[in-house]
Amino acid sequence: MSLDAVVIAAGEGRRLRPLTERWAKPILPVDGRPVIATLLRDLTEAGFDTVTIVVGHLGEQIEELLGDGSGFGLLVRYAKQPAPLGSADAVSQALAAAARPPLLVAGADTVFSRGDVRRFAEDWSAGGLAGALAVRHVPPDELPERSSVRAVGRRLVSVVEKPPPESRRDTLAGAPLWILGEELCGFLEGLPGPPYELAAAAQRAIDSGKEIAAIEIGPTRDITRPEDVIAQNFPYLLAWGKPGFPHGPPS
Prior knowledge:
Strand 2 and strand 3 (33-34) form a beta hairpin. Helix content is 29%, strand content 26%. The strands form 3 sheets. Strands 1, 4, 5, 6, 8, 9, 10, 11 and 12 form a 9-stranded mixed sheet that branches. The protein has helices spanning 19-22, 35-45, 59-66, 87-97, 116-127, 182-185, 198-207, 226-239, and strands spanning 4-9, 29-30, 33-34, 50-55, 75-80, 103-107, 110-112, 131-137, 147-152, 155-160, 172-180, 212-216, 220-222. The chain is built from 8 helices and 13 strands. The protein is of the alpha/beta class. It has one domain (4-239): Alpha-Beta Complex (Spore Coat Polysaccharide Biosynthesis Protein SpsA, Chain A), CATH 3.90.550.10.
């Protein structure tokens, strides 16, 4: 894969307290597996061989879990985000460390439908635009937690991080999965904030005439609040030990 991968794993997970006072959010499980471990599996299956993981809050737990990445068939490098200054700042830290555009950027707290990361990267590679954002339709009650997206065909028109209710026009939302070409990376500096968000960088690029693809993906699974940990693992726990269930975490 002719892309560098960057995984943003530096957030504090404030809405998940008290769990995230003790554990880093990306190591919490979905289906018995740490969310970030599932993401690294997806990156391996998509053909990536190197990934830069941006760590912050309790980052040592993530480094202990993943090590050098050899257990996933990857070379894992780490960059530190000293303060939680937003997703654009996290990518800037990765670029300052070792990552080089074009970049696939993923949030470490989302489980994507299997195969979607690979399809997303391949779809962008075939189009060759300045960048891409993964989008999907979500229930209206989930919109306050996500970025609001407007697209015309497969072109992104606007993206706003967690907009107020009165400005939401439909149920199309962005997922924490981006591709940033070299031109788009040039819009990471001078953003309003903090926090400094990728949504703001993308909007500035669009307003400057750059074309960003809106690529629809399948459902995602997220852990946002403590009760989500139970909800996302309950079916897995119910199935544990039943005939046909594997004797360990799902692959």
